[in-house]
Amino acid sequence: MVQAFPPGVTRRKYVPRHNTTEGDLHKMVCMTMLLSDKQRSYLHAMGIDVYQRQDAPCVQLLTTAAGAITPDPEDKSLSQVQEPIPLTPPSNSPTQLTLLDWAALQTAVRGCTACGLHQTRTQTVFGVGDPKAQLMFIGEAPGAEEDRQGEPFVGRAGQLLNQMLLAIELQRSQVYIANILKCRPPNNRDPKPEEAAQCWPYLQRQIEIVQPRLLVALGRIAAQRLLKTDTPLVRLRQKQHHPEGLGVPLIVTYHPAYLLRSPQDKRKAWEDLLYIRNTLRETTK
Ligand code: SF4
Fold first, then answer.
1. Which pTM was predicted?
2. Which of 75, 167, 267, 277 has a Cα at 20 to 30 A from 110?
């Protein structure tokens, strides 16, 4: 395998930053040379191709139109400017939920009628993956396909998330994936503040039980809800946050549904994935 790092640059020394410079990008693309053919194919599926230039010591990483995935009209764009969700105390009792184990929590969610979304759901969407995972992804809410299948991230956005995970050598079954809301908002609208507040204790208990080493918020709504902020997503990327009361560091990246509509940002998502992978390695040392 070709390794063409600039002098003094090693895999361990590369740390992506928010204000990535050309030099940082050079180091980043050099890292892609360490990828296996399989990882390169996953990156290609994400719309990120890696080319070896004849006249350059390293590689160029380009997002190609050919690799772009056609947006699904069901998928929601998270790029729109919307109001952050204010935080209000949930009416569900976190005290009672802390007594529940995983199975009992699943049962509680299945029977939940704490907000109006229970009237329109096909079924609740609890989460999927390894309940002892070191890495936990949190999205916004189930969409139409998730509501049908009872599993988060199963549509085209879910397929892209799977490719993103494989690009950092993780299977979907090795992480845990959940949403802020367990029931689908009608017509895929944004969660209402009271719905997010009512559902919060379930997610909080899931995080307590899974005890991941790192949380990843997928998209603006999940990020702002978890961090209790209205800061734009672009300013939340590429840094570790410490959400109040969770005791687990959190990193923010784009929602796969947004990336389907905005393939030009897949390169930034790849930077985020590298940052997530490196941070996870640091926290598991
Ligand atoms: S969205 Fe959450 S709080 Fe509302 S009914 Fe579903 S499980 Fe209960």
1. 0.74
2. 75
